[in-house]
């Protein structure tokens, strides 16, 4: 009878776990090619061996010098002793310095882990042995938004931010659009927020005229695992939007726009809207960011959506992105369609 061998998983001792941690730390601490070729533990062994060697040589030189001072002075024994003492000091100092640097690296990693837990990028869990552990959360849409929010809060970047972003998401949930067109991708922040609540089968087409922000937005959208439903395109929205109806060699035509989000140059908002208007489906929602703080620059746009009769429009008040002390708002307009009767 054939008996298959079964591998038994033995519990790992505390000593073995500590040894493995130190081995992992060696890889984490390596910052240059030299660190990889000569790891810290190998350097400490070398310094310790050097210190021991210099100590033995110093004892031998000192013993000989004490036994026959005159002969040793003539042979330069005192110089040999001095050289070995200097070597002992240097090797011992290097060994001690490496140990201190190791403690600093451990403390730095501990500080980083605590900060990651506090910011939500690292989660705490209990392993099978009942030990409390932590690990980085996978990079997804929430991870990217947290990172962009920290960046935006630090440098006051012109993204929609968490407060207005939540309002924008609520509007997307209410309308459940199949096709969203965004003007002004920037870093992809608002597109990712809308993508989080996009209904199945929905798509977002986002325009960005600045090439460096186009690359950044594509990167963050890809890291957020939303490249399948967010298409960031390079170019002027006034020229790109009218072509959506016919499509191109690389993109399919759309049936119409259900949701339009404007977050680029305020002075061009009306141009964006007029370019998109022939493609708007009845009931389409148009959201214009910074309608509070840039109301003067948006005078023509606001007069049009509020007075043309084509839209039912209102402002939802909020605060400027990453500035709770500055009032702002979103102008939300619903397209009535071409039949105005």
TrEMBL record:
Family as reported in the entry's similarity comment:
Belongs to the class I-like SAM-binding methyltransferase superfamily. Cation-dependent O-methyltransferase family.
- GO process terms (BP): catecholamine metabolic process; methylation
EC identifiers of the protein: 2.1.1.6
Segments spanning the bilayer are: 45-67, 79-100
Which InterPro entries does the record match to this protein? SAM-dependent_MTases_sf (IPR029063), SAM_O-MeTrfase (IPR002935)
Q: Which residues form a coiled coil?
A: none
Keyword field: Catecholamine metabolism, Membrane, Methyltransferase, S-adenosyl-L-methionine, Transferase, Transmembrane, Transmembrane helix
Q: What class of enzyme is it?
A: transferase
Q: What is the protein named?
A: catechol O-methyltransferase
Fetch the PROSITE patterns from UniProt: SAM_OMT_I (PS51682)
What organism is listed for this UniProt entry? Klebsormidium nitens (Green alga)
UniProt GO molecular function: catechol O-methyltransferase activity; O-methyltransferase activity
Origin superkingdom: Eukaryota
